[in-house]
Predict the 3D structure of the following.
Amino acid sequence: MPDWITIYGIESISASDRVYLEVYDIVKNNNCFLIVDESNLVKNKEALRTQRIIRLAKSCKYKLILNGTPVSKNEADMFAQWYILDWRILGYQSYWSFAANHVEYWTILLPNGNEIEDRNRIKRILDVDYLTAKIAPYSYQIKKSDCLSDLPAKQYHHIAFDMSEAQAVEYAITKERYLDRVKEWKAETIYRLFTALQHVTAGRKIISDIDDHMETKPMFPWTENNRITTLLDAINNYIKGDKCIIFAKYKNEIADIKSALTNKYGSESVVEFTGNINQKTRQENIEKFRGDAQFFIANKACGAYGLNLQFCHNIIYYDNDFDFATRAQSEDRIHRIGQTKEVQIYDIYVRSTIDEFIIDCLDGKEKLVDKFKREIDKWKEHKNERKTVHKRKCI
């Protein structure tokens, strides 16, 4: 890189005061062009990382945000990202003034019969057309298919299985326990319920009290886990001898997957990529996967960004979470420049459980992103049509 280009990680800027002050010194003493890549990582205006990048942006004359999925939950995701560019684009200097005009929250019914807004749960975004018109003049988008016309397509496959009878009973008990203790539908309450249910579908039993830090234990050894059996069957039926990335949510799942694959294919066929592994070992494992290793086991938090793994064309999601942005980014680890084969993506899930609900939510969020992008395109087309009509009138 030329010495006039400096690159810093968003995580480094938020985690290290030294790094932040170093960047701040650069932007204060130079005429800088700030580029924020993966701007969905700074969509929460109250987060320290976002606050620091906003302060840096105020000293930069030129600013650019880059993202494939700027809207991963709803259009409120836009606020902080466009605030980094300039608050005047949307026209609000605080999130509260933005929310007062554009956010409708779910309500909570109190015991006395009154209702209050639940600021943790957004019901819908109002006046989306207005927001689209505001950001469209400052937005440029291009589809991957437009700039990489020869990039093979992605094919999606859902692989369902059933829990064991004991697991199904535990799932029902866990759901009733958590629902019975719900006093009001706050975000953290819903999160705990969903997390508990996902643990059960993964083959683990909740052993802690509902109000305590959640602790689990395995309901059975991994050799008797239907999810592991389904994974091995999918590899045998679809992956065969090809390379494959496996994304899993929990550390204990990654350990079980590694044990199962090592037992069947040998230790040299499997590499791990998680936050528990230091940077040097991670890089070594990438090279092993590029070489003879067949399986790359990772969690999305660690493996969704910054990796170029297009020599592989298979991904299995052992389970999922609600984060569409990291899901989309993780798929793009292999669906990128250099990929020559059709990308195959497999989702393993338990029928009629939280697993199926999450997959439906991810599909809905993808539709939301596509709709949002179409709205911007539509606005620009109408603007160009208005310009053409105006020119004709002038002529």
